[in-house]
Amino acid sequence: MSIGPSPNTAPDSTLNKSELEEEMVENQFRDLLRSFIRHRSAVIGGAIVLFFILIALAAPLIAPYDYKAVNENIRLSSPSPEHWLGTDDMGRDIFSRIVYGARISLWVGFVAVSGSIVVGSLLGLIAGFYGGWRDVLISRIFDILLAFPSILLAIAIVAMLGPSLENALIAIAIINIPTFGRLMRSRVLSIKEEDYILAARAMGMKNGRILFQHILPNSWTPIMVQGTLGFATAVIEAAALGFLGLGAQPPDPEWGKMLADARPYIQTAPWTMIFPGLAIMMTVLGFNLLGDGLRDIMDPRMKQ
Amino acid sequence: MSLRKSWIASIALVMVLSLFLAACGGGGDSAGGGEDILIIGRGADSKSLDPIQVTDGESIKVTHNIFETLVKFKEDSTEIEPGLAKEWEASEDGKTWTFYLQEGVKFHDGTDFNADAVVYNFERWMDKDHPEHKGGEFIYYKGMFGGFKGDKGHVIKSVKALDEYTVQFELNYPQGPFLANLAMAMFGIASPEAVKKDPVAFNENPVGTGPFKFKEWKKGESITLVKNENYWREGLPKLDGLIFRSIPDNSARFTALQSGEIDLMDGLNTDDAKQVESNKDLQLFKRPPNTIGYLAFNMEKEPFNNKKVRQALNMAVNKEGLVKTFFGDLGEPAKNPIPPSLWGYNDEVKDYEYNPEKAKELLAEAGYPDGFSFDLWAMPEPRPYMPDGKKIAEYLQANFEKIGVKANIVSYEWLTYLEKTENGEHEAALLGWTGDNGDPDNFLYVLLDKDNAKKPAQNIAFYKSDELHDLLIKAQRLSDQEEREPLYLKAQEIIKEDAPWITLAHATPPVVAKASVKGYVPHATGSESLENVWIEK
Questions:
Q1: Cβ contact (<8 Å) for A249 and B408?
Q2: Architecture of the domain defined by A91-302
Q3: pLDDT digits (tens, 9 = 90+) for B73-83
Q4: A-chain residues near B250 (CB < 8 A)
Q5: What would the pLDDT profile of B333-363 be if each residue is shown by its tens digit?
Q6: What is the ipTM of this complex?
Q7: Which residue in A88, A100, A89 sits closest to A63, CA to CA?
Q8: In chain A, what residues touch B395 (CB-CB under 8 Å)?
Q9: Is the Cβ pair B325, A263 closer than 8 Å?
Q10: How many CB atoms lie within 10 A of CB B414?
Q11: What is the pTM of this model?
């Protein structure tokens, strides 16, 4: 574990500290990049993720049609040069819908995961660092949240808040909090016994500074890896909620919702189902490969 | 060792015994000739089994088999034929009606059907102070007979038993569709004893004179009826029982039919119709088109209290496209609230043309140049008049967007949806209607008259036009169809101009059954008694 600056911020090296630090970081970054490129599945995963991010960003430029435009004359037409992935039951271009759908799925993944990382890490930090009743309280809350099957909990939350994309997002963020919280807590528990923390404490450094300058920077690697993997889960959960009609509302072309809409046509017009399904699968695969790769790269035990 | 042996022996014995018992059970059944039970798949559960309390087709479909009416519709038309009354006569002025009842008919609980029972039922329905006027809103009675006892416009003055099998109705004024109204399944005669026991719980324990008796209701799942062995029509019903199963998803229901789980179903996806026609194990019935699917604007709320806004939205909808997309061959675009097959249909009425540009202009004139946003309510389950409410809402949403109007689609569980729309909580809601008696009055008065705009309302547009009201009431009080017709023609013009609805489509609801189901005739009113149906072996 050698990314964070903390172990090197020995108090007596104040003079050339920043210079040294910069060099260290640069070296580490180069190291990381090199091992990333050498890691084949990480590169493939990264490429897929990048591909979908580009598609999402450039959706208006890529999509050949308005994703909302209905046309009864071309409903359920099979893939053709005009409509690359065919049209759905209302005659809407599936390719355009999938392109715009990438925006929704990635947006949901990003916001939900960021949300759960922020909240989860904070709670985990507090629980791990202070211990005592705070730890008991927070850990039990995590246990309770984890006791529910996550999608069931998400459904319950959305049912309470009302079905919409925003609420689905909140629900997905909430159900992922304990994953990050527990991870953070366990990291903090081991880091706080390290010598440099004891040294900082011996110097009379305040808790807040220890937490945010020493402990947090040294525990974020697993969080980052978990975050990438969590992104994949969030995309699936968003699709599941969309499929159940609890996520994105029409006319948003959410992939899970497209799947649900395509259900009656699975035999007569399978492309309405195959392509949104593939889009979900590829995105999830991309994030999983990337996450696995990052874990391998960043785990010092895996390094030769 | 010996212990283990005895164990094996006893297990073997249990297995043999259970096999034997199972075989016996099966044998017992087949010895009795086998139970002919028709399993019907449908989109939603019933709301109540007290027919007078309901307006939804899913409830009527069931109660139609439990209860009978004084007169009834012919199997394949809306002509009237004898029911519990074998004969009847009307006075010259149309204000006195005398019914001669069938003798020897018994309710399922063993009590006698007679003139007193008929009088009791009508008293319960019409008199708000009646001790058993409970269990619901009696919304259909109010809708068809101009309110309750004491209300201005109430049609029935009194109901008297002249002798044990003769009933006489005195009317305040003649009502054109009086007989047709009496034939509606909602006015099924219930056992007075059973109602008196508990008028509220009666809806879960219905007792009538019909061909089938109520057995069990698993809420949200299924309703089971069994053969009425003492049914007064000889040799009927031919089936031993009916099971109504709710399977909300159209495709899932169709799969259940194909796999033999159910015998008959309604609510077929338009795109599956071709599959049925090419499958010789299945048969497709088309219910005579007698429906309207519409979008009702709540005229009590802004901006829908503005006629120009309503007209603009009418112009924004591409009806041809909508019908082609969702109804295929099983529907046609609607311009009037009543279906073209009904007498009194006004073919002269010109529909709003599909013209987003003009709609935009009109919207600007109304003071909404940048459009507005509203909640568009869509029913959660497939209905006979609308195969997929949510998707139709999505289509409308795309149409409205072109004129700058943003529609947010909202949906509730079906029974909640009905309740909330009846109470006017919506801004604009999709709904529809299947005619129950082959009279234009049943569409226009029930759904659009100001009498029915009082909460809980059937006129969910809360459209209150005095001009229309006068016409409809006048038409109601005439008994000659030729005199009534011009009034209804005029009524449709007024409605088109005021645009309380967007009339979307007249559907021809498909019914699919296994090829072995015989004697089934779908009725235009959306429900039928299944006494003549049998299953061919």
A1: yes
A2: Orthogonal Bundle (1.10)
A3: 888 888 889 99
A4: 264
A5: 999 999 998 889 999 999 999 999 999 999 9
A6: 0.79
A7: A100
A8: 70, 90
A9: no
A10: 21
A11: 0.79
